[in-house]
Protein backbone atom coordinates (compact mmCIF):
# COMPACT_ATOMS: atom_id res chain seq x y z
CA UNK A 1 0.00 0.00 0.00
CA UNK A 2 1.36 3.43 -0.91
CA UNK A 3 1.41 6.40 1.39
CA UNK A 4 1.80 10.14 1.09
CA UNK A 5 5.59 9.90 1.47
CA UNK A 6 6.01 7.71 -1.62
CA UNK A 7 7.63 9.35 -4.63
CA UNK A 8 7.41 8.37 -8.26
CA UNK A 9 10.61 7.84 -10.20
CA UNK A 10 10.09 7.63 -13.94
CA UNK A 11 12.24 5.31 -16.03
CA UNK A 12 14.36 6.79 -18.77
CA UNK A 13 12.31 8.48 -21.49
CA UNK A 14 13.73 7.81 -24.94
CA UNK A 15 11.88 6.42 -27.93
CA UNK A 16 13.36 5.46 -31.31
CA UNK A 17 11.57 5.00 -34.61
CA UNK A 18 12.40 4.95 -38.30
CA UNK A 19 11.71 7.35 -41.13
CA UNK A 20 12.86 5.16 -43.99
CA UNK A 21 16.54 4.46 -43.32
CA UNK A 22 16.81 7.33 -40.82
CA UNK A 23 16.64 6.47 -37.12
CA UNK A 24 14.98 9.16 -35.01
CA UNK A 25 15.26 9.10 -31.22
CA UNK A 26 12.99 11.32 -29.15
CA UNK A 27 15.00 12.05 -25.99
CA UNK A 28 12.84 13.72 -23.37
CA UNK A 29 14.27 16.80 -21.69
CA UNK A 30 11.55 17.29 -19.08
CA UNK A 31 8.83 19.88 -18.60
CA UNK A 32 7.96 23.19 -17.05
CA UNK A 33 4.75 23.78 -15.10
CA UNK A 34 3.56 27.35 -15.59
CA UNK A 35 0.41 28.94 -14.20
CA UNK A 36 -2.22 29.21 -16.91
CA UNK A 37 -3.48 32.78 -16.78
CA UNK A 38 -5.69 35.09 -18.76
CA UNK A 39 -3.59 36.61 -21.54
CA UNK A 40 -1.45 33.56 -22.28
CA UNK A 41 -3.54 33.17 -25.43
CA UNK A 42 -3.63 36.66 -26.88
CA UNK A 43 -6.79 36.37 -28.93
CA UNK A 44 -9.07 34.02 -26.97
CA UNK A 45 -11.32 34.40 -23.95
CA UNK A 46 -9.79 32.78 -20.90
CA UNK A 47 -12.96 30.76 -20.34
CA UNK A 48 -12.51 29.23 -23.80
CA UNK A 49 -8.87 28.42 -23.05
CA UNK A 50 -9.85 26.72 -19.79
CA UNK A 51 -12.60 24.81 -21.57
CA UNK A 52 -10.08 23.57 -24.16
CA UNK A 53 -7.88 22.25 -21.35
CA UNK A 54 -10.83 20.62 -19.58
CA UNK A 55 -11.93 18.93 -22.81
CA UNK A 56 -8.51 17.23 -22.97
CA UNK A 57 -8.70 16.18 -19.28
CA UNK A 58 -5.92 18.61 -18.36
CA UNK A 59 -5.72 21.02 -15.41
CA UNK A 60 -7.34 24.37 -16.08
CA UNK A 61 -4.95 26.40 -13.91
CA UNK A 62 -1.57 24.94 -14.96
CA UNK A 63 0.07 24.42 -18.33
CA UNK A 64 2.66 21.63 -18.35
CA UNK A 65 4.94 22.39 -21.29
CA UNK A 66 7.11 19.45 -22.32
CA UNK A 67 10.44 19.53 -24.18
CA UNK A 68 11.63 16.77 -26.53
CA UNK A 69 14.75 17.20 -28.67
CA UNK A 70 15.42 14.70 -31.46
CA UNK A 71 18.58 12.73 -32.19
CA UNK A 72 18.76 11.77 -35.85
CA UNK A 73 21.12 9.10 -37.17
CA UNK A 74 21.42 9.56 -40.91
CA UNK A 75 24.11 9.09 -43.55
CA UNK A 76 26.81 8.28 -41.00
CA UNK A 77 26.02 11.37 -38.91
CA UNK A 78 24.46 11.68 -35.47
CA UNK A 79 22.58 14.96 -35.24
CA UNK A 80 20.84 16.55 -32.25
CA UNK A 81 18.02 18.99 -33.00
CA UNK A 82 17.80 21.46 -30.08
CA UNK A 83 19.33 20.98 -26.66
CA UNK A 84 16.87 21.71 -23.88
CA UNK A 85 18.14 23.45 -20.74
CA UNK A 86 20.88 21.23 -19.23
CA UNK A 87 21.13 22.61 -15.67
CA UNK A 88 20.03 26.11 -16.69
CA UNK A 89 16.29 25.53 -16.35
CA UNK A 90 13.65 24.36 -13.90
CA UNK A 91 14.30 21.29 -11.71
CA UNK A 92 11.74 19.38 -13.78
CA UNK A 93 13.96 19.64 -16.87
CA UNK A 94 17.58 18.89 -17.78
CA UNK A 95 17.25 15.18 -18.52
CA UNK A 96 18.26 15.12 -22.20
CA UNK A 97 21.74 13.65 -21.77
CA UNK A 98 20.49 11.03 -19.31
CA UNK A 99 17.82 9.93 -21.77
CA UNK A 100 20.23 9.98 -24.70
CA UNK A 101 22.49 7.65 -22.70
CA UNK A 102 19.54 5.34 -22.00
CA UNK A 103 19.06 5.09 -25.77
CA UNK A 104 22.72 4.18 -26.24
CA UNK A 105 23.72 7.58 -27.63
CA UNK A 106 27.02 8.99 -26.39
CA UNK A 107 27.01 12.83 -26.46
CA UNK A 108 30.59 12.62 -27.75
CA UNK A 109 29.30 10.80 -30.84
CA UNK A 110 27.29 13.79 -32.04
CA UNK A 111 28.59 15.24 -35.29
CA UNK A 112 26.19 18.20 -35.37
CA UNK A 113 23.87 20.12 -33.10
CA UNK A 114 21.17 21.85 -35.14
CA UNK A 115 19.28 24.70 -33.49
CA UNK A 116 15.75 25.64 -34.58
CA UNK A 117 15.68 29.06 -32.86
CA UNK A 118 17.25 30.91 -29.97
CA UNK A 119 14.75 30.63 -27.11
CA UNK A 120 16.43 29.36 -23.95
CA UNK A 121 14.71 25.97 -23.85
CA UNK A 122 16.34 25.20 -27.21
CA UNK A 123 19.87 26.60 -26.78
CA UNK A 124 20.71 26.60 -23.05
CA UNK A 125 21.70 22.93 -23.15
CA UNK A 126 24.73 23.74 -25.29
CA UNK A 127 26.61 24.62 -22.12
CA UNK A 128 26.22 24.00 -18.40
CA UNK A 129 25.52 26.71 -15.85
CA UNK A 130 29.24 26.58 -14.99
CA UNK A 131 30.12 27.24 -18.63
CA UNK A 132 31.17 23.74 -19.72
CA UNK A 133 30.56 23.02 -23.39
CA UNK A 134 28.41 19.89 -23.40
CA UNK A 135 28.83 18.78 -27.04
CA UNK A 136 32.44 19.72 -27.79
CA UNK A 137 32.84 17.35 -30.73
CA UNK A 138 29.79 18.62 -32.63
CA UNK A 139 29.52 21.40 -35.16
CA UNK A 140 26.73 23.82 -34.24
CA UNK A 141 24.35 24.87 -37.02
CA UNK A 142 21.92 27.76 -36.56
CA UNK A 143 19.40 29.51 -38.84
CA UNK A 144 21.02 32.44 -40.62
CA UNK A 145 18.02 34.73 -40.08
CA UNK A 146 17.91 33.88 -36.38
CA UNK A 147 21.64 34.47 -35.92
CA UNK A 148 21.49 37.83 -37.68
CA UNK A 149 18.61 39.02 -35.52
CA UNK A 150 19.87 38.01 -32.08
CA UNK A 151 23.56 38.87 -32.51
CA UNK A 152 23.17 42.44 -33.77
CA UNK A 153 23.71 45.08 -31.10
CA UNK A 154 21.29 47.49 -32.73
CA UNK A 155 18.45 44.96 -32.37
CA UNK A 156 19.17 44.59 -28.67
CA UNK A 157 19.36 48.37 -28.24
CA UNK A 158 15.87 48.93 -29.63
CA UNK A 159 14.27 45.84 -28.10
CA UNK A 160 11.79 46.16 -25.22
CA UNK A 161 13.37 45.74 -21.78
CA UNK A 162 11.60 42.40 -21.30
CA UNK A 163 13.37 41.02 -24.38
CA UNK A 164 16.91 42.16 -23.54
CA UNK A 165 17.65 39.11 -21.31
CA UNK A 166 17.06 36.90 -24.36
CA UNK A 167 19.81 38.77 -26.24
CA UNK A 168 22.10 38.41 -23.22
CA UNK A 169 21.42 34.69 -23.01
CA UNK A 170 22.22 34.24 -26.70
CA UNK A 171 25.57 35.95 -26.10
CA UNK A 172 26.25 33.78 -23.04
CA UNK A 173 25.61 30.59 -25.00
CA UNK A 174 27.22 31.41 -28.34
CA UNK A 175 30.02 33.92 -27.80
CA UNK A 176 32.50 31.30 -26.48
CA UNK A 177 31.87 28.98 -29.45
CA UNK A 178 31.52 31.45 -32.34
CA UNK A 179 34.36 29.74 -34.22
CA UNK A 180 32.42 26.48 -34.48
CA UNK A 181 29.00 27.95 -35.28
CA UNK A 182 27.85 27.83 -38.90
CA UNK A 183 24.63 29.28 -40.28
CA UNK A 184 22.21 27.57 -42.63
CA UNK A 185 19.46 28.88 -44.89
CA UNK A 186 15.94 27.62 -45.33
CA UNK A 187 15.42 24.94 -48.01
CA UNK A 188 18.95 23.61 -47.44
CA UNK A 189 19.95 20.23 -46.00
CA UNK A 190 21.37 20.42 -42.49
CA UNK A 191 22.06 16.67 -42.54
CA UNK A 192 21.37 13.90 -45.08
CA UNK A 193 17.59 13.79 -45.54
CA UNK A 194 16.96 16.67 -43.12
CA UNK A 195 15.89 19.93 -44.78
CA UNK A 196 15.27 23.27 -43.05
CA UNK A 197 11.83 24.87 -43.57
CA UNK A 198 10.87 28.52 -43.09
CA UNK A 199 8.64 28.50 -40.01
CA UNK A 200 9.15 32.13 -39.02
CA UNK A 201 6.82 34.07 -36.78
CA UNK A 202 7.48 32.41 -33.45
CA UNK A 203 10.88 34.09 -33.79
CA UNK A 204 12.35 35.79 -36.88
CA UNK A 205 14.37 32.73 -37.90
CA UNK A 206 12.28 29.97 -36.38
CA UNK A 207 12.82 26.78 -38.38
CA UNK A 208 11.02 23.48 -38.87
CA UNK A 209 12.44 20.44 -40.68
CA UNK A 210 11.45 17.88 -43.25
CA UNK A 211 12.96 14.48 -42.40
CA UNK A 212 12.72 12.22 -45.45
CA UNK A 213 14.05 8.85 -46.55
CA UNK A 214 12.64 6.70 -49.34
CA UNK A 215 8.86 7.05 -49.35
CA UNK A 216 8.71 8.20 -45.72
CA UNK A 217 8.50 11.85 -44.71
CA UNK A 218 8.00 13.56 -41.38
CA UNK A 219 7.76 17.23 -40.46
CA UNK A 220 9.46 18.32 -37.25
CA UNK A 221 7.48 21.48 -36.46
CA UNK A 222 9.72 22.74 -33.61
CA UNK A 223 7.58 25.43 -31.88
CA UNK A 224 4.98 25.97 -34.58
CA UNK A 225 2.55 24.99 -31.84
CA UNK A 226 2.96 25.16 -28.11
CA UNK A 227 0.67 22.78 -26.20
CA UNK A 228 -1.39 20.81 -28.76
CA UNK A 229 -4.52 20.86 -26.57
CA UNK A 230 -4.65 24.57 -27.24
CA UNK A 231 -2.90 25.31 -30.54
CA UNK A 232 -3.42 22.14 -32.60
CA UNK A 233 -7.07 22.10 -31.62
CA UNK A 234 -7.30 25.87 -32.16
CA UNK A 235 -4.69 26.83 -34.76
CA UNK A 236 -5.96 30.42 -34.90
CA UNK A 237 -5.02 31.08 -31.28
CA UNK A 238 -1.80 33.01 -30.58
CA UNK A 239 0.36 32.33 -27.50
CA UNK A 240 2.36 35.14 -25.93
CA UNK A 241 5.57 33.37 -26.95
CA UNK A 242 5.09 34.23 -30.65
CA UNK A 243 7.12 37.34 -31.53
CA UNK A 244 5.17 38.03 -34.74
CA UNK A 245 1.67 36.66 -34.03
CA UNK A 246 0.26 37.17 -37.52
CA UNK A 247 3.18 35.48 -39.26
CA UNK A 248 3.26 32.68 -36.67
CA UNK A 249 -0.45 32.08 -37.17
CA UNK A 250 -0.03 31.86 -40.96
CA UNK A 251 2.92 29.47 -40.51
CA UNK A 252 0.93 27.29 -38.11
CA UNK A 253 -2.06 27.01 -40.42
CA UNK A 254 0.15 26.31 -43.46
CA UNK A 255 2.19 23.54 -41.85
CA UNK A 256 -0.65 21.86 -39.96
CA UNK A 257 -2.77 21.82 -43.10
CA UNK A 258 0.07 20.33 -45.14
CA UNK A 259 0.74 17.64 -42.55
CA UNK A 260 -2.92 16.68 -42.24
CA UNK A 261 -3.79 16.80 -45.94
CA UNK A 262 -0.72 14.79 -47.00
CA UNK A 263 -0.98 12.29 -44.15
CA UNK A 264 2.54 13.04 -42.97
CA UNK A 265 3.99 12.04 -39.64
CA UNK A 266 4.53 14.97 -37.28
CA UNK A 267 7.06 15.57 -34.53
CA UNK A 268 7.05 18.62 -32.28
CA UNK A 269 9.24 19.95 -29.51
CA UNK A 270 6.25 20.60 -27.23
CA UNK A 271 4.05 17.64 -28.16
CA UNK A 272 3.46 15.06 -25.39
CA UNK A 273 6.22 12.45 -25.29
CA UNK A 274 7.22 10.68 -27.50
CA UNK A 275 6.22 13.83 -29.36
CA UNK A 276 5.19 12.26 -32.65
CA UNK A 277 2.06 11.08 -34.41
CA UNK A 278 -0.34 12.20 -37.13
CA UNK A 279 -2.95 14.92 -37.55
CA UNK A 280 -6.52 14.67 -38.70
CA UNK A 281 -8.55 17.70 -39.68
CA UNK A 282 -11.93 18.31 -38.07
CA UNK A 283 -13.60 21.36 -39.68
CA UNK A 284 -11.19 24.23 -38.91
CA UNK A 285 -9.34 22.34 -36.20
CA UNK A 286 -6.92 19.45 -35.97
CA UNK A 287 -6.50 16.51 -33.66
CA UNK A 288 -3.19 14.88 -32.79
CA UNK A 289 -3.21 11.09 -33.03
CA UNK A 290 -0.14 9.77 -31.18
CA UNK A 291 1.82 6.94 -32.75
CA UNK A 292 1.42 3.45 -31.34
CA UNK A 293 4.27 2.72 -28.95
CA UNK A 294 6.35 -0.20 -30.26
CA UNK A 295 9.14 -1.93 -28.35
CA UNK A 296 11.20 -2.74 -31.46
CA UNK A 297 11.56 -0.83 -34.74
Structure description:
The chain has 297 residues and is α+β, with helices and mostly antiparallel strands. The chain has a seven-stranded mixed beta sheet. A seven-stranded mixed beta sheet has the order 10-11-12-13-14-15-16. The protein has a two-stranded antiparallel sheet with strand order 3-4. The mean pLDDT is 95. 23% of the residues lie in helices and 28% in strands. It starts with 13 loop residues before the first strand and ends in a 7-residue tail after the last strand.
The ordered string of helix (H) and strand (E) elements is: EEEHEEEHEHEHHHEEEEEHHEEE
Shape: globular
Helical content band: 10-25%
Report Rg.
Answer: 19 Å
Strand count, sense and barrel status of the largest sheet are: 7 strands, mixed
How would you describe the oligomerization state of the chains in this entry? single chain
Strand order of the largest sheet: 1-2-5-6-7-8-9
**Roughly what fraction of the amino acids lie in strands?**
25-35%
Number of helices: 8
In short:
Helix content is 23%, strand content 28%.
What is the fold's blueprint, element by element?
Layout: E1 14-19, E2 22-27, E3 30-35, H1 46-55, E4 62-67, E5 70-74, E6 77-81, H2 96-102, E7 112-114, H3 120-123, E8 139-143, H4 144-150, H5 153-158, H6 164-174, E9 181-184, E10 189-191, E11 194-198, E12 207-213, E13 216-220, H7 228-231, H8 245-262, E14 265-267, E15 276-282, E16 285-290
Parallel strand pairs: 6-7, 7-8, 8-9, 13-14
Antiparallel strand pairs: 1-2, 2-5, 3-4, 5-6, 10-11, 11-12, 12-13, 14-15, 15-16
Amino acid sequence: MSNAQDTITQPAAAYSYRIGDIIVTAAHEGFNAMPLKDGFVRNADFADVQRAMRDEFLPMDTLNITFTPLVIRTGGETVLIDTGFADNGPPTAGFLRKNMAAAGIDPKSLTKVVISHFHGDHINGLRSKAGEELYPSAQVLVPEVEWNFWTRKENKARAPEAMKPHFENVARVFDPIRDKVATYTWDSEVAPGVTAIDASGHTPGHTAYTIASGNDRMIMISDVTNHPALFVRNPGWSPVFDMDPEKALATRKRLLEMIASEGLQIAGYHLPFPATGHLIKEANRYRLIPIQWMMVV
